Amino acid sequence: MTKIAFLGLGAMGSRMALNLVKAGYALTVWNRTASACDELVAAGAKAASTPREAVQGAEFVISMVRDDEASRQVWLDDKTGALAALAKNAVAVESSTLTPDWIHELSTAMQIHGTAFLEAPVSGSRPQAAQGQLI
Fold first, then answer.
1. Exposure string for 11-25, b = 16+ CB within 10 A, e = fewer
2. Does the predicted model carry a pTM greater than 0.90?
3. What would the pLDDT profile of 36-56 be if each residue is shown by its tens digit?
């Protein structure tokens, strides 16, 4: 079974992650506010206490956070950042709306780590996310 980690469970991320659970994927979730994981755990996901913990063993990692700084903390924080624990054969997907400068920096960090990186911002809102119809 494909193992996926989902980092960031705000209005869009929680809906995107729920679709992955409903599709039967083994999903580990993380959010700065731990209670945001509760609904997904009830639906079958596993909660992690840090992004680094969430990505352990994941084949795909999706991040959906609010801005550059949140993305930087999720991926590169010295103590809890996901990139340090990401498997070399994993695929990192950044779906947040971020600045080109930060995406370039993050892409470089992923390349140095040897990890495949996909910049995949989404267009749509809560209803589209819930229905799996983001573009």
1. ebbbbbbbbbbeeeb
2. yes
3. 999 999 999 999 999 999 999
